[in-house]
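Dear colleague,

Thank you for sharing your sequence with our group. We've completed the structure prediction you requested, and as agreed, I am returning the results in plain text so they can be pasted directly into your records. Please verify that the sequence below matches your submission; if there's any discrepancy, let me know and we will rerun it promptly.
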Amino acid sequence: MISVLYIDDEPDLLELGKLFLEQEGTFAVTTAESGPEALVLLNETAFDAIISDFQMPGMDGIALLVEIRKSSSIPFILFTGKGREEVVIDAINSGADFYLQKGGDPVAQFAELGHKIHQAVSRRQAEEALHKRLSVIRQTSIISSRFIQLAPDQIHDAIHELLAIIGTQFGAERCSVAHVTKKSDTIHWSHEWVDRNVPSRKEVRGTVDLADFSRLVERIKLCEAEIVPDVSAFSLETGDDKKLREFLESMGIKSFVLIPLLAGPVLIGALGISTVTKAVAWPEEDIDILKIYGQIIAGALARRAADKEIHESEALYRTVFESTGTAMMILEEDKTVAVVNREFERISGYTREEVCGRMPWTRFVSPGDVERMQQYHALRRADPSTVPKNYEFSFQARDGTVISTYITVEMIPGTKKSVVSLIDISKERFALAELADSEEKFRGLAESLAEGIYMIQDGRFLYVNPAFAKLFGSTVDEILAVADYTDLFVPEDREEIRRVVAERLAGIKKSERYTRRAVKRDGTIVPVVIHGSRTRYQGKDAIIGTVTGP
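Please find the predicted structure tokens below.
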């Protein structure tokens, strides 16, 4: 159910809108008759979307939107009978998700409004999920770097803390770590985190005989995660399957994921994540992050099981280094790369024989980031507190591919060496840029309007809507192909138009409406009223505005 706050100073229209929207069965509508009343409701109740009229006494729809955007990115749809171009531009620049004009068949109109609500809420949910994933990736990098430097006596508590982080991040209700006993025929549950009001099962489970779950063991030995979204629907085809389902049900588990813990090629345990109140569909991207966490825990367990002189054991330390779950480097003071792990080989395209002791780390940094990172490298060795441990940069692979990367850097105590953890965030960065540009939102607003809408950047039309093209007797593609936006106007008016646009881009004038003579495709000259103001698109200044005929 999508909760909607609907604001309008006309009670009859509010009641009609509430009736139409709620009859679909997917909306729960709360109404308010003014902007101030809506702000009070927003402080008391969480809503999924807002619909607001524009012209209301005291606080209009744009003023309400501006106030809400100070603290919230909740989807906002301006639903109004006011059709002036200033309202359209102000709605776009103030952060409205959609602009819809009242009028016409109410059934069709409220159906379209319902569609816009669904679109806006879905897009905002996708954006929030993406921000959450970026946050998780950053945290994973920090945790990976921290774990590799833990002393053996700190590992037990650190794993408990990590299980709490995993449970909170992924909505689990119980997270556990089991490790294989010395005889390699049983597993023992050594660590457990449970959510509030969820009973512990660590002591109940005790030691489990692996022979009872041979199929499951074979899967995790192959580094495959076992994913069961709904235990009640789990297959009973084999005796192993039946035993596993009975075991899970005896623990009260409704859904679970089991991640293998490997030290090199050796299975040393498993990370279990489960729910006890509901079935859960575990997204592939969540499983990828859980696998990284599993490798972090595996590396920590391998270290704890080793001799107290772990740091003098090159072979074991290398195993830990290879099992962190992220691309890793150890850097010398002179910028030489001393050591890399398998994941670094994979993302860079180089073998460790080609890199270690032969290449500076600057080889893997895009030119635009080199100077900044060289300064960090020097300052970190003089005073680590003066430079960030975590930041983003562009990693350059062997084939020229540039990878958006989140980096964590820590100094190795007592040395001038640093240990570096790298995580590829290219997919997240690309998706975030797409969402930030909000091109889909802009088109949804602009192409539903009768006014001509345009956007100018770098002396060209970046976008025009169909109404704009029609006004000039051309197609959208023809106008976008024009080399200079002033070519659509008579020669005598072009210099003045350039001056006005330059003033708006420079911030000298916020916006301006003026009349100039346009030249249609057939040569006809017609007066048009132009209105526009400065905006930002893809990180650069642009002009967005409207054009209307006589």
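Summary note from our side: The CA atoms of residues 168 and 372 lie 35 Å apart.

Kind regards,
the structure core
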